[in-house]
Specification:
Layout: E1 9-12, H1 24-32, E2 35-38, H2 41-50, E3 57-59, H3 65-77, E4 82-85, H4 98-106, E5 111-114, H5 119-126, E6 134-139, H6 146-154, E7 159-164, H7 169-180, E8 184-189, E9 197-202, H8 203-211, E10 219-223
Parallel strand pairs: 1-4, 1-5, 2-3, 2-4, 6-7
Antiparallel strand pairs: 7-10, 8-9, 8-10
Helix pairs in contact: 3-4, 6-7, 7-8
Length: 227
């Protein structure tokens, strides 16, 4: 296996649900770096325990990143190797890893990707919608800028991928229907987990589908671009 490079940041992808969806390389990196910066140490601990990883963790999330970023940068400059992981999937996609990667690049600290699971791609490949050109919108703004973003998305010709939480999914789908009209879409829920579900239909049908269910789990919405 590869030798761990001192003074380097490893951006390590972890499973989005099924703990078997992790690479041999990712486990090797996690076992041999000096420190793991975890968005959610409790969730990461489940993965580490399964694969007998004993490397110490440091919590690194949106609420403490301003304090923790300089501490991690100092460790890297002193020769420590650090792996950053999100609570699930590929770090930097709708999580705080970006806030560490940027100053590492500015400080000439090597940033090494360890690819793996991603909810964006998992939902996209089963959507049945064009995959040659797509745009990832992450979570829509909660208030300020939400209408502007929806108007922009309405004019997007590429396939659109959006993240949403269970307590906002109904509102978001209703707004998408209002702004984008009745386009084809795919709703992927709890990808790779026990209650994984993929729903295909139009935005109007999706709205009706959600009215019949109590929203649970994390969602990815894939929507056809404007013709």
């Amino acid at each position: 296996m590869e030798k761990i490079r001192s003074g380097s940041l490893y951006v390590v992808s972890t499973p989005i649900g099924n703990l078997s969806d992790v690479s041999y390389r990712a486990i090797h990196i996690l076992k041999n770096v000096t420190l793991i910066a975890s968005e959610d140490t409790r969730k990461t601990s489940i993965l580490l325990k399964k694969y007998d990883v004993t490397t110490p963790q440091l919590a690194y999330h949106s609420y403490n990143q301003k304090v923790q970023t300089p501490k991690i940068l100092l460790k890297l400059k002193n020769g420590d190797s650090v792996a950053i992981v999100s609570d699930a999937g590929t770090p930097g996609i709708s999580d705080p890893a970006y806030a560490l990667v940027v100053p590492c690049i500015a400080g000439k600290i090597p940033v090494i990707p360890v690819p793996g699971a991603s909810a964006v791609l998992a939902a996209l490949v089963v959507s049945g919608l064009p995959m040659n050109r797509f745009v990832f919108e992450g979570f829509l703004p909660l208030k300020k800028g939400r209408k502007t973003r929806l108007l922009e998305i309405a004019e997007e010709t590429r396939t659109i991928v959006i993240y949403e939480s269970p307590h906002r999914i109904k509102k978001t789908v209703s707004e998408l229907y209002a702004y984008l009209d009745n386009r084809l879409c795919c709703l992927a829920r709890e990808m790779t987990k026990m209650f994984e579900e993929v729903y295909y239909g139009s935005l109007a049908e999706l709205e009706q589908h959600l009215d019949r269910k109590i929203p649970k789990g994390e969602y990815v919405i894939v929507i056809a671009g404007k013709e």
